[in-house]
Amino acid sequence: MSDYADLSDQDAADLIDEGADAGIYTLDRSSGGNATITGVSPQGTEPKVITDAFGELQQDTDVDFRVISVVTDSINDALYDAGYDDFASLADASIDDIASLTSTLTESRAENLLKEARTHVPVGLRLAKTAATYYGQRIDPDTERAAARVTDLSLVTDSVGEPLYRSEGWEPDDERGMYVSDIGRNAGSPVTTGLHLLDDPDYPSVPKTATHPDAAYDALPVDDNGEVVPPAVPIDPRFQVPLDELIAKKLARGLVPIRVVGPRGSGKNYLIKYLCHKTNRGYQSIDVDRATEPEDLFGPLVPDGDVIVPRNGAVKQGLLNGDTIVINEFPVMQAGAAIALHRLLNEGTLLVKSHGELVEPHPSARMVITMNPPTREYRDSEPMNSATRGRFRSFEQPYIQEIEEEVETLDRQANSNDPVVDRPTLKKIVQFAHQTRENESWPTLSTRNLTILCEHIEDGVYPKAAVKGVLWGVAEPNQYPEDAYETLNDYL
């Protein structure tokens, strides 16, 4: 009960006993003493603590649109007269449909009404529509049934687009043809980075937005205006420059190897995906492990009739096509696989010994690796070989330092289409998350964890319970999330 209402465990137990004594229900108790409520017969009004937590009990079966803040009695009647009989149908209406239904229902009030109406639509209905959209994208036109897709990367030989300045006839230093850092600290004073925009946004591996016809589950979220939600860009703690600006300028230098070090869920891959989306560059993310060998990166030798021929792996094919290759958890690879990349990191050419090939990558090809810091929390992370480490331009991506900045980012992601969690509650959650990042004995709530937490809230979980559930889910064996619950009570 303490997850849902402002009650201690003892207060909740007393309230349950009082209800049984009043004859509202009967209690059965297990051998362990736990009480199970049975035979409920509601009497009188609900206790105030229940009303405060869950709202007034609706006695009639008709939908009352007056729970929406801008809806008056006359507007409520007008909505019924116009044929709206539930929140789902109202949420699907347009501003033009309902504006002017009454003399007081202006366009701005209609916009607020529709936005608030979406919060009352059962989440299951929204999820069903979204799932249907994704399902429809996988329909085979021949069978009219959904099907999986398997892409042989070695056969994807199309190259990324040309630099936009070439297509448009601009000078190479024309700002219109390059990425301009205008987020985070640079929002008020944009900085040109020199990273050229490419002219083919439909190139297959350019990261897609959630509104794209071919969007999948890894699509980039968009805000109310249909724009991609930008990452909350931290300042590199040593260079004191926004990270998107630093990385974009390194990417502008060509095949310069970049290493991004940061804790889980801090947004390392999202930042690279965002830069690739903004510049129409191919994005290939590859996860490696201790079993990864050079042929997993570059491709094996396979029989073709009477001869043995090379088959391109993801890294080699991506370099040929001009993609931005992102290798995650790079240090855990076997030394041989990492050393096989040394010539590429040093000289910009790839020698694939087993293939007998010297590959000069496409001029738009780029290489980025990510890794967790080799600290106690990430004890499975391997420290990188010093000879390999010295070949990279290294940057640190910490968790977002400013609470308001993280709140703004989460607000745009969680509430972009339908309001999920109000901003004051979101701020309390972020404030608590920042405390978990400062206490080594507590499970750490990352920015990614907070997006999952908001998803739980959308599914009907109360905020406090959602925080507890996510804390439990990320806890290490030597951590006890219960230790953080007392502090959580100070926020929620």
Can you tell me the overall shape?
A: globular
How many strands in all? 15
Order of strands side by side in the largest beta sheet? Answer: 8-11-14-7-15
Give the percentage of residues in beta strands.
5-15%
Q: Could you tell me how far the N terminus lies from the C terminus, measured between alpha carbons in angstroms?
A: 13 Å
The helix tally amounts to 20
Which blocks of ≥5 consecutive residues have pLDDT under 50?
Answer: none
CATH architecture of the largest domain: 3-Layer(aba) Sandwich
- CATH H-level superfamily of the largest domain: P-loop containing nucleotide triphosphate hydrolases
Question: What is the number of domains?
Answer: 4
Coarse structural class: alpha/beta
Rg result: 28 Å
What is the averaged pLDDT score?
Answer: 87
Question: Sheet bearing the most strands, described?
Answer: 5 strands, parallel
Please give the CATH class of the largest domain.
Answer: Alpha Beta
CATH topology group of the largest domain:
Rossmann fold
Helix content: 25-40%
Task: Describe the model.
This protein is an alpha/beta fold. The protein has four domains: 36 residues, no CATH class; 57 residues, DNA polymerase, domain 1, CATH 1.10.150; 233 residues, P-loop containing nucleotide triphosphate hydrolases (Rossmann fold), CATH 3.40.50.300; 89 residues. The chain is 36% helix and 12% strand. The chain has 20 helices and 15 strands. The chain has a five-stranded parallel beta sheet with strand order 8-11-14-7-15, sandwiched between helices. It has a two-stranded antiparallel sheet with strand order 1-2. The radius of gyration is 28 Å and the shape is globular.
